[in-house]
């Protein structure tokens, strides 16, 4: 079986497993909905700056919760089964693609809920904002998937996941916040560089994961 076939097979297995056990995905989506509702109750006067700041906060923690579950099913003796089933690179890419889809779903859901509760759309450049969401989802997924693998091999410590992931995503979050600021009309200039740098970080994160993950997984 080729690497591409292994990736597609593992991704299909992830989706089917998630569909049969929807409580895990439901808990992530419930977190996003509950957090957005609490924001609505706590923040009386929404503004473009408030929307931009709260949006990325909700997205980051939602992505962290989703990404932290990446390798829970491969713990214990199942690790050896997956070791013989597919290559380490295929496993990482399948997890990366799955987490990317989940983070994109969280991104769109958070955007819709914040817009609904605030009563108006603060995004003046929806196409640009959507591009930032797509690149942000790719970047967060690449970093969080690899960090989740490290945490799983170290015993599944959630604390380790949080400690390792936050410093790694700070540059990406900085770019995304600035890109979101442009999309809601807070800043202008350098908007193209924000997306280009975010794309470069996405590629770097995925490349580093592909190089280092086989050593982590086979240890």
UniProtKB/TrEMBL annotation:
GO terms for molecular function: heme transmembrane transporter activity. It holds the Pfam family CcmB. GO terms for biological process: cytochrome complex assembly. It is found in: Membrane. One of its GO terms (cellular component) is membrane. The chain crosses the membrane at residues 21-41, 53-72, 96-117, 129-152, 159-182, 194-217. Keywords: Membrane, Transmembrane, Transmembrane helix. Belongs to the CcmB/CycW/HelB family. This is ABC transporter permease. It comes from Neolewinella aurantiaca.
């Amino acid at each position: 079986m080729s690497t591409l076939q292994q990736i597609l097979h593992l991704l299909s297995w992830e989706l089917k497993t998630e569909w049969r056990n929807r409580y895990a995905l439901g808990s992530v989506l419930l977190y996003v909905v509950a957090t957005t509702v609490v924001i609505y109750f706590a923040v009386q006067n929404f503004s473009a700056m408030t929307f931009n700041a709260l949006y990325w906060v909700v997205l980051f923690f939602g992505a962290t919760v989703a990404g932290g579950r990446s390798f829970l099913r491969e713990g214990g003796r199942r690790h050896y089964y997956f070791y013989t089933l597919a290559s380490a690179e295929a496993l990482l890419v399948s997890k990366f693609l799955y987490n990317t889809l989940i983070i994109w779903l969280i991104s769109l859901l958070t955007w819709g809920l914040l817009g609904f509760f605030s009563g108006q759309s603060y995004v003046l450049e929806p196409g640009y904002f959507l591009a930032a969401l797509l690149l942000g989802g790719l970047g967060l997924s690449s970093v969080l998937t690899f960090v989740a693998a490290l945490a799983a091999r170290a015993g599944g410590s959630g604390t380790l996941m949080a400690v390792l992931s936050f410093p790694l995503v700070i540059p990406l979050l900085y770019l995304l916040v600035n890109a979101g600021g442009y999309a809601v009309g807070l800043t202008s200039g350098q908007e193209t560089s924000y997306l280009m740098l975010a794309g470069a970080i996405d590629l770097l994160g995925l490349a580093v994961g592909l190089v280092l993950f086989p050593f982590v997984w086979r240890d």
